[in-house]
Amino acid sequence: VLWLAGLGLLALVSPQPGRWPPLGRLGLGFGLGLLAVPHALFLASLLGLTPGWGIGIGVALAAWGAAFAVRGRTALAAGMLARAEPAAVRSRGRVALEWALRGLILASCGLAGWLALEEPLVEWDVLAIWAYKARILLGAPLFPGDWLADPTRAYAHLDYPLLWPFAMSWIWTGAGSADLLAVKWLAPALLFAFAATFHALLSRSVDRTTALLFTALLMGTPMLLSQSVRLQADVPLAYFASAAGALVYLWLRGRCPDGVRLAGLFACGALLTKNEGMALYAVLGAATAVALCFRGDAKLRRSAALWLLGLPALLTSPWFALRAGIPKLHEDYASRLAPPMLWENAGRIPEILSGALGYLGAPQDWLFVWPALALLLVATAGHWWRRPALLYLLALAELPLLLYVGVFAVTPWQPAVLMEAAASRLLLHSFPLQLLLAAEIVRSAALLPWLGQSQGNAAGAATPPGREEERGPRDVP
Amino acid sequence: VRAAAWITLGVLVALSIGAGMELTPYVRLVRELRGRTLAERGQLASDPARSFPGRAGRIELRRRLASSRAPEGTLGDVWRWCFEASRRLPPDARVWLGAPVASLYFYASFFWLPARVDVTPEPAPIRDQRTLSRHARTPDRAWLVRHGYTHLVTRGPAGGLRLVELPADAS
Question: What's the pTM value of the predicted model, to 2 decimals?
Answer without folding.
Answer: 0.93
